[in-house]
Amino acid sequence: MKYLSRRIVTLFLTLFLVSILTFTAFNLIPGDPVILILGTETTPQRADMLRSQLGLDRPMPVRYVEWLMGLVQGNFGNSIKYSLPVKSLIEGRLPTTISLALLAIFLIVIIAIPVGIYCARKRNMAIDKVLNSVSMLNLAVPNFFLGVLFIWVFGLQLKFFTPGNYVDYNENFVGFIGYLLFPALVIALPNIAILVKFLRTAVINQLTADYVRTAYSKGVSDNKVISHHVLKNALPPVITLLGMIIAEIFSGSIIIEQVFSLPGIGRLLISSISFRDFPLIQTLVVYIAFIVVFVNFLVDVLLQAIDPRIRVR
Predict the structure, then answer these.
(1) HSE of 228 in the Cβ direction (CA atoms, 13 Å)?
(2) Contact 193/115 with Cβ under 8 angstroms?
(3) Under DSSP, is residue 78 helix (H, G, I), strand (E, B) or coil?
(4) What stretch of H or E contains 107?
(5) DSSP string, 234-245
(6) What pLDDT digit, counting tens, does each position of 111-138 carry?
(7) What pTM value is reported for the model?
(8) Helices 231-252, 173-207: inter-axial angle, 10-degree rounding
(9) Residue range 70-97: average pLDDT?
(10) Half-sphere exposure of 75 (CA within 13 A, CB side)
(11) Closest Cα partner for 70 from 12, 19, 9, 14?
(12) pLDDT in tens, 27-60
């Protein structure tokens, strides 16, 4: 319980520090949202009036406290660019981003884990070398280029989907998942390569351990050794890596959303940064930070459940 309490305190402290850094950074960068709204030809009087309406004329510490209290109460303020509540803008884009991330995570788990175990069992054989080469190729290709390649091959040439023709989940759920499949694959492939290589190494290390040789000498089947002994000991570091991958997916899908024209959190963040939409930017960054920190928290809790020795550390 003490370990869990410490992790919860760390979670909230991290989010608090992120909120301070985010608010300070975006309020110190060059650019005036008032000028972006009114244009450079506006009069100083009109600019001062709008600045007062937006609350930008107040001291930064005062604005931070007001914004932080709003976050705690679920009131994120209004977007400068869209003139709409930030909460409604995020709620409208959140299903797309979460669905994309969950689909990518699903693909990573169902592909990487069996392939990693298979490569370990067939280590140094031809199929292992081929799969390792494919993994290295996946790691070498940038996500942006892979996304453009998928659009050209599967969208423009094979006509599996229509680029830019996004289908809302409320209109056609099957079409929605079908359109998300390709950007989810683009996100998943490099992470599959990472997890395959890591899991392969972890399983090989366990297969050479004394307890595995003892199990084989007692006539335990290969499948039982893998499922009951090897995976149990290889799992903790793999879960840690998978947690990092999941956090990276939620925070790193911005470029892919832009490439595939997905109306998600990533595209909303890019448009808000270019417009200096401080209330929206700050809330989105804290949201992404919350996902990353919360996933790491869940990983710690899961590792504690699997390996009680972590509590002592």
Answers:
(1) 10
(2) no
(3) strand
(4) helix 86-121
(5) HHHHHHHHHHHH
(6) 999 999 999 888 888 888 888 888 888 8
(7) 0.84
(8) 140
(9) 89
(10) 7
(11) 19
(12) 777 767 777 777 777 788 888 887 887 777 888 8
For 58-74, write each residue's pLDDT tens digit: 888 888 898 889 888 88
Domain covering 88-280 in this structure, CATH number = 1.10.3720.10
What gap in Å lies between CA 309 and CA 291, rounded to an integer? 26
For residue 65, the Cα-to-chain-centroid distance in whole angstroms is: 28
Token pair, residue 148, equals 């453009």
**CA atoms lying within 13 Å on the CB side of residue 149:** 9
Which is nearest to 3 in space by CA: 294, 307, 312? 312
| Per-residue model confidence as pLDDT tens digits over 199-249 | 999 999 888 888 888 888 888 888 888 888 888 888 888 888 988 898 888
Copy the structure tokens of residue 224: 């039982």
41, with CB counted inside 10 A (0-12, 13-18, 19+), is exposed
Rounded distance between C-alpha atoms, residue 77 and residue 85, angstroms: 6
For the cut 80, the answer to whether the pLDDT of residue 251 exceeds it is no
d(CA 48, CA 285): 28
Asked if 234 contacts 203 with a C-beta cutoff of 8 angstroms, the reply is yes
- At residue 142 the predicted structure's pLDDT band, cuts being 50, 70 and 90, is confident
CB atoms within 10 A of CB 147: 21
| Cβ atoms of residues 200 and 136 within 8 Å | no
Q: For residue 312, what pLDDT band results from cuts at 50, 70 and 90?
A: very low
Boundaries of every domain in the chain? 88-280
Q: How many residues does the chain have?
A: 313
Q: How many CB atoms lie within 10 A of CB 2?
A: 7
Name the average pLDDT for the chain: 86
- Please name the residue that has the structure tokens 């149990």: 232
Whole-number Å distance between alpha carbons of 55 and 291: 29
Query: Phi, psi at residue 85, to the nearest 5°?
Result: -60, 135
Q: How far apart are CA 204 and CA 202, in angstroms?
A: 6
